[in-house]
Records
---
Amino acid sequence: MTKIERRRGGGATVRFEAVEVAALRDLAGQVGQVLGGGVPEHGTDPIRDRLFPRAYVDPTEDRSEDEFQSVVHEDLVRAKSEAVAALLADLDASADGQIHKNYNGWIQNLNRGITAQLSAI
């Protein structure tokens, strides 16, 4: 069972079971593939839509959306890719499944990916 302990100054120490480490590696790999697979159009890939939601929901604002994405999308992909790489590196470095960091960002990314996959079923 996962054990989570708060750390003074923020963050937490998390101890994962071996099966949880394997699941995290698999999910992180899937998110990494989505991030590295180019940018499909909105509405064609539910996982992409959850990881990169539209800034302008109104369909009449497609031009503004395209401009916004052209400015921020590469930075978003880079930040999410770095978070996935950091998670995988920490899982590799931890012999006992214990990690001492604040992983709010990657948890959100994995959650979005899982939610999108379940929604597509």
---
Amino acid sequence: MATKQITILKEHVDKVETQIGTSLKSIQERLTVIETSGFSELESTDEDGRTITSKVDKFDLISQSLINISVRLEQIEKSSCNHSTDIGSEKDEILAKIEAMGNEIALANDKLTESIKNDISHIKTVVIEKLKVENTNIKSRIAVFENRMVEAERHMYKMDQHGRKVNFEINGLPDNVVNTKENKNILKETVVKLFQHSGIADASTADIEVIHRLPYSKSVPKPVIIKARRDFIEKVVAVKKDFINVGINHMAYTNKLYINDNLCPYYNKLAYNCRQLKKDGQISDTWFSNYTLKIKTLDEEIKTITHEYDLVKLFPDFQFSFDTAIYLIKTNSLLRDSRFKIQEFFPHKTKLENKLNNTILIFNNI
């Protein structure tokens, strides 16, 4: 709007300047005419309507023209002054309006800035509170899923170990006790003799269903894994202590012999970590009893360990070495190894694998 008013004022000034220029040009022309003639003829009309021609001295005409010019200049000057006054007044009015508009814009900007700050503060508060609630809910859900997974893994490892109750291992039996082409039962017959010397007088090769060396063991000599009848297992448990020196006393061995539970890879890992705790002085003892891992705390409290979570919860600052993925890989590699003939020891393995796969599928769909 201010721009429009300024444009109108400029047009008005231009118009005044044009009028002044036109008047000056007219005056100049009249002066030129007077100078070229000493007298001028003036025509007038009498009462009867007749035209009267008279001669006028050029100085009278000049005087009269100058008077007229002076009057015209005075009019133009007055008009210019009025227009200048009007232009100055309108200019001040426009500047005042512009200043008022600037103040209004500044005030509106301040209000908008304050409103935006308040909105941002409100949004931050709402969003942060919402995120806190969502974070709490997510943590709760994760805790629930972790508990479910731990219980599912407990059940899976327990099933794996349950199938090994009719199995046991002998550690320390020399590696030169092996089957040959001539006699494929040397290993079984030797073990039977050892049990007979230990106190199981009626031990026979019929008590032992399957016997093999453990191919992946790093121990020297490699352990022997045995699958036996359940009633024979009970007799073996009873002579564990007498079996330790039977090789030295009756078979001229230099190694002591130990009968150990046949543990699944995961329970072996648990047992290893418990031995590390004992070595570090965190617990007073650890052992297996009826295929169950036990520890005795420094307060003489006995606790059952069936999952790594149990150890981590009791000793959160201890550096444990757990890797469930390695356990699964080792188990699968044993299943694929024909030399070990694992199905002879674990005929239920197919059923166990199906349940294990179903458990994994359930957690993948959560």
---
Amino acid sequence: MTLAARDSSWGTRAYQKREGKNEGRHRKKSRYCLKLPLNAVSTYAQARGRGAVFRGFMVATGPANDKIYGRCMGLVAKLCAVSAAEAEAALLRAIYGVDELPAEVWARPRSAHIAQSVLPESCRDQAQTVLPVALLLAKGQSYATAREMLATEPRAGWRKHGC
């Protein structure tokens, strides 16, 4: 007589425990497999709907913290083929909305620039335009021309609310 035949409940319980663990793992995997395409679809919709992608880079952003400030400078330098100093100057001109930077702007700490670039509370649902403006400034456009060029782009969400 085998062990399973003598105590049929033992084999059943062991099988149920194994099935329960595998079922939980399977459920987690299936949720994860569903999450990936949903994230991809929502990201694509946001990028296309707001015009947030330029040459495969997400550009509808602004320097909300130190890490993103550095990333914005890097994107301006890379996409416009300019030096890091020129990229930072273009980014600062976009943040402060000027064509020529006063000397006191350069003396401010980076945290002051970041605080200046954050959108007002009423406009936080809109796409940031600091980086797209900085890209145009790095290519030689004036601030007014850069804003005008972005205003004519139909996917620029900031112009709808005057932000």
